[in-house]
Amino acid sequence: MGCSTSALPNSASTTAAPGVGVGVGIGGNGGGPNAPLPPLDANEKDGSLLFCIKLRRSRMRRCSCGAVTLQQQNGDGSTGSATCGDNIMCNQVLLNPQQTKNESDYEKLSTGKKDSIVTVAALGNFTHSVVRRATGTGSTGTSGTSSSGGGRPGHRKSSLALALTPEDEPMDVYTRNLMDLKYPTVLPPNPQLKALLVFHKSDSICEVVTLACQRHQLDVTLVKSKEEALDTLQKSYATAQCYHLIIIDARSTKGLDAEHIARTIRHTHGHHLTTIIAVCKKSFFEKDDALIALLDAGVNRCIAETTNLAMCSVELKQILHSIIRPHNVMSTQQALYTALHRLKEVVLITDDLLRIQYANRATERLLNMRLDEIISKPLADIFVSDLSTISEQGKSIKEFDGILTVRRKNQEGIPMHVRVVPVACIGSAPTHLIFNFDIPGGGMDFIATLPQPKEAPRGSLHSVRRCSFDVRSIASDGLRRTSLAKLTSLPLEAPITKENCSADEARLIDKVLEFLKREGLYSPQMKEIRTDDPIATDLIGALLTGPSVYSSRRSSNDSIIRTGNSTRTAIVPAKMKANPIVMELLEESLSWDFDIFKLEEITDYHPLLYLGMEMFRRFDVFATLNIDENVCKAWLAVIEAHYHKSNTYHNSTHAADVMQATGAFITQLTNREMVMDRMDEATALIAAAAHDVDHPGRSSAFLSNSNNPLAILYNDLTVLENHHAAITFKLTLGDDKINIFKNLDKETYKSARSTIIDMILATEMTRHFEHLAKFVSVFGSEVEPRELVQSEEETSILMRRMLIKVADVSNPARPMQYCIEWARRIAEEYFMQTDEEKQRHLPIVMPMFDRATCSIPKSQIGFIEYIIQDMMHAWDSFIDMPQLITCMQINYSQWKKYDEQGVNTLADIMAKQPPVGNKPSNSK
Ligand SMILES: Nc1ncnc2c1ncn2[C@@H]1O[C@@H]2COP(=O)(O)O[C@H]2[C@H]1O
Questions:
Q1: b/e string for 162-192 if b means 16 or more Cβ within 10 A?
Q2: Residue 833 Cα, ligand 1 centroid: separation in angstroms?
Q3: Which positions are catalytic residues (predicted)?
């Protein structure tokens, strides 16, 4: 007789009968009473499998961490307690707290007669030796039996069932079938294990350790110093390899400082789950201080030196089973946490006292708070509703399901459908409560940070909700239905249109159109520039036209670009977080009415550094690039230092402003479930931060007209943007301390670089209409985007280009007070260019931008009408940010009013403004 075993993989069901005979059955395949254990397959070796095990109670003990472990059967027949291996996961755990279905498991174990036998279903990494020790059977004494009835034909049997001798007492049977396993686990990785041996010299001990590793098929690398060890680890990290086991010679501090090495490794990124073993002198085990110091430094286990290969091999085997394998299992938690974090649904976990222990990204968005503002807070702080029912139900392990009102940071209350699931991680009382939020009716509109104007007609947000970023479906679904009319009515068209033709011909024409589009046939004359409006003509002409217009004019050999000064020193404020005013302001850093000028002021003209770090943090850029925060900080500081403070407009505040808009757009895209992946977000933010770096405060046309070396270098083509992109990479790659890309693998780096360059080049205004028209024709078309462009990647490129373009010139769509300040800054910069052109007798690129005569309102009206308006409508239709349109319209009306009132000069306009730094009037 024996146990019937599970019919399905990774699970077991038992129907153990009283008085079962000695038996070890695997997969329900009958073995004779003395049949040897069949070998475990790969899954069984490394996976977390459900085992059905019958055990004598007296051989079990409860470990201090709450798990039930085995009592070991020593070779001499005595028993010893199985210990809780490394305080992370119990050694030879039979039932660990997370794996028990309910508390009765433990009760059954602890209350039955001392020597009765229980059958437990345990999820773990058991091996034959563990099982043998559990049952007290040696390799010869075990025999396999299994019931024939338990397994379903056709299914792989992977559970291991054990039973004790027939003379054992009747069993207090606890039966568990596979359905009891409520939550499936993620199978851990099953890698080829690699060991790094750090031995000062290759003596006999080192040799034995090496042989023992090889005996267990470990791939061994031997190094002789701390530096070599760290270098090897660094290299392995960069090539996505890893060492699972590091064995350090700790016998003497003369050769190697094992404690220091262990501590350094433990603090190195990616090594929190690496198993570190110290080989110590036997004498160390007589007093504990040296060993404890090693363990405190992060060593998992200290083993005694030996020249006996068998002993060393057994020791290593134990380490493989009891530490490395559980570590592998634990590493899979990262996958679960990532899934949880990326979930669109709001998930929040509290402890039993309702203090928040975990919140995913969706929670941050819902509450409009950062993680560090959420974690550890009492739940009552974020709920308006009374939580006593939840507490009560939680205590009695009952789920709660009801409507509660949650309070966002701005005190706005939102009624939410909340489900609360209590979980007991240790013992029987719930230790944690899992909160899952829904909006009644399913809407997610609460996430919008600014009020939506009533007049903006919108399709339901549901219509554009997607599980992942899929530009094609966005275009074919929400965008097309809600805003197609608006988009297609834009005065932008492909050069050829299809009329009166068959569907096949139309498709062919579309293909041809796309081909033509890529040849850059969209031209600046797509919108006629009114000749009676000289300011608009000047500005728009200068922005949209390439250098040829001016190339025939006279030039000068002077250069305005300061060359040879590529290593500006960047000052990184030591304690960025220390300034509470900055921190408070940055809390709003994703709002469209964010006050960038105040940030400029309170950071002493380092807005890019502060805003940049905030954006990098909010969008997990450190993790995405696998880079230390300090490298990012240094990078931002250097990039910021290469923006020219003397420019009134193209300085680091503009870069920070564009980065802020980029962050706001990414958030809005995510809110509408058009999710960019993490690398897309990171590259977009990097491109935004660097897109105008080292801008000389003069236009490309000016550089061409003045024979500036950059214009010569880039043949008058896209001069500034080429320079911004090139210097970004020159600076970044030129100094390891700021190289934010250094940990990316080759392919990822290549792709990130190409995206960043493409985005920076897209900010060039001479191709403005080309980019806009492509965007509109792809995202506003009746035709599926896939038929218009070659790949999803191309569609995504069009979207990213438009994102940075809109961010770059979003100032006319900012709240009025900011819009006016930006207009002042750009006008001042244009005036300075005109001043210099006059002074140096260069062609005057925008004669109307003369400080003595210029009408600022007219220039802004022209800029909005010709450049901004269509683009904002197209972008708003795509991402649904009606506040862009609202602000733009208010600003436009204001410029019109100023124009009518004859308020023209900068001085007139500024006299009418409240000082910047106060909240704008049209932001809410
Ligand atoms: N408010 C504005 N008024 C006029 N021109 C602007 C305004 N904002 C941006 N621009 C121009 O648009 C250009 C976009 O690319 P750049 O940042 O290189 O340079 C910018 C300015 O020349």
A1: bbbbeebeebbbbbbbbebbeeebeebeeee
A2: 14
A3: 650
| Per-residue pLDDT, 820 | 96
Q: Which of 765, 771, 802, 871 maximizes ligand 1 atoms within 8 Å of its Cβ, making it the mutation to test the pocket?
A: 765
- Give the number of the atom of ligand 1 that is nearest the alpha carbon of residue 860: 3
Task: Give pLDDT tens digits for 750-763.
Answer: 999 999 999 999 99
Whether ligand 1 lies within 6 angstroms of the CB of 809 is answered as: yes
DSSP readout, 172-221?
Answer: E-----GGG--SPPPPPP-PPPEEEEE-SS--HHHHHHHHHHHHTT-EEE
From the CB of 807, is ligand 1 less than 6 Å away?
no
Cα–Cα distance measured from residue 197 to residue 818, given in angstroms and rounded to the nearest whole number: 61
Class in CATH terms, 516-911? mainly alpha
Nearest to 243 by CA among 255, 260, 256, 229: 229
Burial bucket for residue 737 (CB in 10 Å: 0-12, 13-18, 19+): exposed
Of ligand 1's listed atoms, the one at least distance from the Cα of 542 is 22
Distances (CA, A) of 921 to 387, 511, 679: 38, 48, 36
482 has a pLDDT exceeding 60: no
Closest residue to atom 12 of ligand 1, CA basis: 809
Measured from the CB, is residue 837 less than 6 Å from ligand 1?
A: no
Q: State the CB neighbour count (10 A cutoff) for residue 385.
A: 18
Count how many Cα atoms sit within 13 Å of the Cα of residue 842 in the half-sphere of its side chain.
Answer: 28
The CATH topology of domain 194-331 is Rossmann fold (3.40.50)
Would you list the domain boundaries of the chain? 23-180, 194-331, 343-447, 516-911
Greatest Cα-to-Cα distance within the chain, rounded to the nearest angstrom: 110
Ligand 1, atom 8: closest residue by C-alpha: 809
Residue with tokens 């329900």: 28
Judge whether 805 and 763 are in contact, CB under 8 Å: yes
133-136: which pairs have CB atoms within 8 A and are 24 or more residues apart?
133/70, 133/72, 133/73, 133/92, 134/53, 134/55, 134/59, 134/70, 134/92, 134/94, 134/162, 135/22, 135/24, 135/53, 135/54, 135/55, 135/162, 135/164, 136/56, 136/59, 136/73, 136/164
Query: For residue 318, what are its two tokens?
Result: 């134990």
Partnered with residue 172 across adjacent β-strands are 118
Question: Residue 911: how many CB atoms within 10 A of its CB?
Answer: 9
Tokens 């923006």, residue? 643
In angstroms, the CA 192 to CA 194 distance is: 6
Stretch among 144-153, 480-489, 624-633 having the lowest mean pLDDT: 144-153
* pLDDT, tens digit, 9 for 90 and up, residues 60-116: 555 554 555 555 444 444 444 433 333 333 334 454 444 444 444 444 544 445 455
How long a stretch of residues is the chain?
Answer: 924
pLDDT over 70, % of the chain: 63
Q: How confident is the model at residue 157 (pLDDT cuts 50, 70, 90)?
A: very low
For residue 172, the model assigns a pLDDT of 33
CA of 826 to the centre of ligand 1 (A): 7
Among the CATH numbers 3.40.50.11010, 3.40.50.2000, 3.30.450.20, 3.40.50.740, which is that of 343-447?
A: 3.30.450.20
Ligand 1 contact, 826 CB (< 6 A): yes
Alpha-carbon gap, residue 118 to 856, rounded angstroms: 87
Expressed in angstroms and rounded, the spacing between residue 867 Cα and the centre of ligand 1 is: 10
- pLDDT tens digits, 268-284: 777 888 999 999 999 99
pTM over 0.80, yes/no: no
Q: What are phi and psi of 513, to 5 degrees?
A: -60, -45
Active site residues per annotation: 650
Q: Annotated binding site for Zn(2+): which residue ranges?
A: 654, 691-692, 808
